[in-house]
Amino acid sequence: MRMKKFINDPKRLVPELLEGFALAFPARIRLLGTNTVVRATPKAAGKVRLVTLGGSGHEPGLSGFVGPGMLDYSVAGEIFAAPGAPRCIEALREACRDGGSALLIVLNHAGDVLAANITMEAAAREGLNVKMVLTGEDISGPVGDRRGLVGCVAVYKVAGAAAEQGASLDSCFHVAERMNRNMRTLAVAVRTATHPATGHPIFELGDDEMEIGMGQHGEAGTGRMKLKTADETAEIMLEKLLADLGVQQGDELLVLLNGAGATTLMELYLIFRRVARLLESKKIKLARSAIGEFITTQEQAGFQMTIARMDPELIRLWDEPADAPFFFQA
Q1: Distance in angstroms between the alpha carbons of the first and the last residue of the chain
Q2: Which of 319, 264, 320, 266 is nearest to 293 (CA)?
Q3: Do 72 and 41 touch, CB atoms closer than 8 A?
Q4: Residue range 10-181, CATH number
Q5: pLDDT in tens, 65-74
Q6: pLDDT at 1 over 60
Q7: Would residue 174 show up in a list of annotated catalytic residues for this protein?
Q8: Contacts of 323 (CB under 8 A, 6+ apart)
Q9: One of 58, 174, 195, 200 is an active-site residue; which one?
Q10: Where in the chain is the domain with CATH 3.30.1180.20?
Q11: CATH topology assigned to domain 183-322+325-329
């Protein structure tokens, strides 16, 4: 069954959605060319710029996190596809203009990594001052080659805060890497997404089934099972995450719940309620939290759960102001 969508020409889908996004938030972001979202007001000269890249169709991610305290550039690809390297190197040239520097943050997906590696080779040939962080925190994948999921938002937040304060490129890189090493994500799906240009489903799940370990685009998970309650699902996922990260009593955690597109806030708060109670019972401190839709996959139903072990510096950077269209705090 094809999903009904309010679109125009499928070939113009990405330019039109980015144009609409820029028109909706003119005080915060603007377009560079047709597919790169940049801050409306650039950082002061000499401060590190944060650049990311990734496919469209996951709104608000990734371009929804461009703004003071977070990203400076987001290079958007086509639907569920990485942007080409030429567009990425153009963004890095802009970021490094007049002797500046940039931190390129990339989610571990094959197309994104290929584009990023070609971009970094070009940046090296041109003498641009750039470092790259590859996020990969999905525990359903093999250690050493885990997919990047919504944990990238936490990396944007802390590295963006450090850059806003004038930290060096090396310092921003190390903050991003520390957050990356100390976070884990697990996803669950109860209903498929569709490709917005075709309306066709990406995978199939029975009405009484869910699958834990789904990737961002519906890639195969680690366990299909009968649909569980909110509490049961929270318990299954949190226990796996805590074990993988090696969380101990007294640790301080950030918990981020990311709706996949068709999961309601009601459901997310039910899940979070159980997570918070479980952490309390284990004497693990819930230091910070974020609940909402950050990176979606159209109308896929399910969510991603991220935990991150925090230290005083990461908490301080998390608490710094941000003013992106879909992540802002005073």
Answers
A1: 44
A2: 264
A3: no
A4: 3.40.50.10440
A5: 999 999 999 9
A6: no
A7: no
A8: 28, 67, 68, 69
A9: 58
A10: 183-322+325-329
A11: Hypothetical Protein Tm841; Chain: A;domain 3 (3.30.1180)
Active site residue 58: yes
Domain with CATH 3.40.50.10440 in the chain: 10-181
Single pTM value for the model: 0.96
| 249 pLDDT above the threshold of 60 | yes
Q: Does residue 65 contact residue 71 with C-beta atoms inside 8 Å? A: yes
- DSSP one-letter string for 109-175: -HHHHHHHHHHHHHHHHTT-EEEEEEE--BTTSPTTSPPP-TTHHHHHHHHHHHHHTT--HHHHHHH
What is the structure's pLDDT at 95? 97
Q: Which of 109, 195, 200, 217 is catalytic?
A: 217
C-alpha span between 34 and 307 (Å, rounded): 35
pLDDT at 205: 79
Sort 151 into a burial class: Cβ within 10 Å, 0-12 / 13-18 / 19+: buried
Phi, psi for residue 81 in degrees, rounded to 5: -140, 140
